## 1
Amino acid sequence: MHEAPDIETASDDYARRFAGPVGAWMLQVQETIVLDLLKEATKASILDVGGGHGQLAIPLCNRGFSVTVHGSDAVCAERIQPQLQQGRCRFITGNILHIPVEDHAYDIVLCFRLLTHCDAWQELVRELCRIARFRIIIDYPTSQSVNSMAPALFSAKKRLEGNTRTWHSFTHSEVEQAFAGNGFALGSLQKQFFLPMALHRTLRLAPLSRVLEGVCHRLGLTRAYGSPVIAEFIRI
């Protein structure tokens, strides 16, 4: 089986979903969480699976982390060319379900913007677990949030955003079970936003979005029902 959803997420068209102040704010929320998780891992070897979008590879490389980006095709490297040309990053290609590296080849494996678009997501989880020596950090949208309304609102979301595509929302238990079956236990779970990202993109007011999400965070709504989730899994 060969899937390549990361070709889309590594494209300029996908990057435009995070253009402007609102997109920069969204990415900053994600980046802050991941950097905090990696603060004691500056010497670790990291594989960013499907990371050609550069959302994490670029800031990590700029901070001196040892990062290799995996992409399904050479085209997935276009957005990280400055880092590659400066020798601050490495790039490998291959099927996301059969990545051409040895077992336990990297200390830490990242996988963002990918699980939700992969039909064979359980096989992808298995592959991530095969490669990671110690830790895996992923993101995923959860149906245990306002995303439970996503199927009914997809047409409206597509009209608002233009370039959105179908995705899979997960329950926390199904993701935990998939990793547990491959020898990894949940280490931490952090939820990024309570309100839909599509709403923030529509508002186009980063200061307002910060205020709204700040209120939701203080009320405990984000902790209870937030999405997408950033989850860290530890080898048992």
## 2
Amino acid sequence: MNTASHYKIQHFIPWTRKKIYTMLLLSIVPTALVYFLGWNWLAIPWVPVALIGTAAAFISGFKNTQTYNRTWEARQIYGAIINSSRAFGVMVRDFVRVDDSAIAAALHSEIIYRHFAWLTALRFQLREVKSWENVKTKSYNREYLKYYQVPEWESDLERELMPFLSNDERQEILSTKNRATQLLARQSLQFKELNIQGIIADFNYITLENQLKDLYDQQGKCERIKNFPYPRQFSSINLYFTSLLCFLIPFGFIGELSKHTETFGEWFIWMSVPLSVLVGWVFLVLEQIGESTQNPFEGNANDIPITQISRNIEIDLREMLGEKDLPPAIQPQNNILM
């Protein structure tokens, strides 16, 4: 997530420079053929270009709206995880009751630390790279990684879980496929045992189980967004329409500008180059921005900052436990917060 007021131009232009190079090539070649070789037949009327442009603008707008909705839904889900985690922490602290304060504190820490493990396992699962994601496959996204780091790619899940789980439980969890799911299942098993022992009252036990169900719901929503890409048919048609439009734009401008060469001179046809680059760049950048928004957990600079959110939850719950030695909040790196 970018925390600045906007992307800096010295970052944005290099990120899109290949689009500029593409439009320069597509516009210079036909203009030179018309100017030097007299291939005036390359000029086409502006009407078909405008019609294709209308279709491309419509589908680009549709894609960007839908990809933004995916990102906003992901942020809403993690907002719900924040609220559910805080409520879970309060319930554990107040519902798990033992006369011995030391035993009670140990139980509270064990359960809440397992919740930290769940947050950690979930964010590692969400940062796994899928075949349709583009943060590592597109060169301009790989280049932009120099401005920030994705913590889940720089660290190891086993090492991250060490402060939160015992060695036996950690190894058991790491042996499973869906670690986050099994951690919540382990929470439920412990609540059942504590209920049998009379440490958690029946009504409180039901309430805690409902809270686990809510966390399962939020995890499932995250997995739905992560594992179901923006429909490929819409993504493909947007790419095809935009590419076709950008290919035709120079020919349309040549046709329009050639009508005014008697007034301004033969050189005036070269104005098609900057105009084509500008218009084509707008449409290609819209396509690129939509592409970079459609997978809100992939490790892109526009992602939901799940690492920072998880750390903030950890700080809140540690304070509920009465701890004073708290981990630092995660700060933006070059205005990018992960």
